[in-house]
Amino acid sequence: MDWTLLAERLFGTEHGIARDGDFLRGEVEFDGETLAVIGTTAHAPIGVQLALAQARAVLDVVTHHPGRAILLLIDTQGQQLRRRDELLGINRAMAHLGMCIDFARRRGHRVIGLVYDQALSGGFITSGLIADTCDALPEAEIRVMRLPAMARVTKLPESLLAELSESNPVFAPGVRNYVAMGGVRKLWQGDLAQALRDALADAPTQDRRAEDGAARGGRRLAASVVQRVLDAA
């Protein structure tokens, strides 16, 4: 979905969100409260500049508007694959973005991630997956690694991974597989404003992705392994 159509369905035509290149930022009135909106569009590759711009926007909210809820609009093809960004430390810039989002959460800001178009790789890991809750539109595309890349990393045949992906969400891309694994909490359908209202009201304060994955059958062992580690600590 185009970000302007999404913004209108959520907040009306006078939404106040502005686009600067691939960067989205604004303040909107929602149910009598001001909500900060930060995000990306046009399948943005997340380079050093864009990662730091998002991090700065998050820190501005924490500094100037304590407790204000933050909505992350996610549309990214992952990190910028460019030598300049690698030399400038794209890994540190993206880690900084993730740490800023986590810092906002720890300071009492509700952070809602919404994958409205595409979410790939590190651009997703350091944004939506660190929010209090990450939701998505049903037509969104989500994946962290393509099967050919997964085959190179795991040294397993791509044909075997393709076969495994038919029955195991861990090996398969797609928004519903991420719901099954607990990475995406809910799909927003119908009245998107009501879906946002529900997300703001029900956002968990603890990480429940492993428990959700176990309950939904997408990640059967993660929650039990985590509990065993905690019990042994």
TrEMBL record:
SUPFAM superfamilies: ClpP/crotonase. Gene3D superfamilies: 2-enoyl-CoA Hydratase, Chain A, domain 1. It comes from the Bacteria. This is Biotin-independent malonate decarboxylase subunit gamma. It comes from Pelomonas candidula. The lineage of its organism: Bacteria, Pseudomonadati, Pseudomonadota, Betaproteobacteria, Burkholderiales.
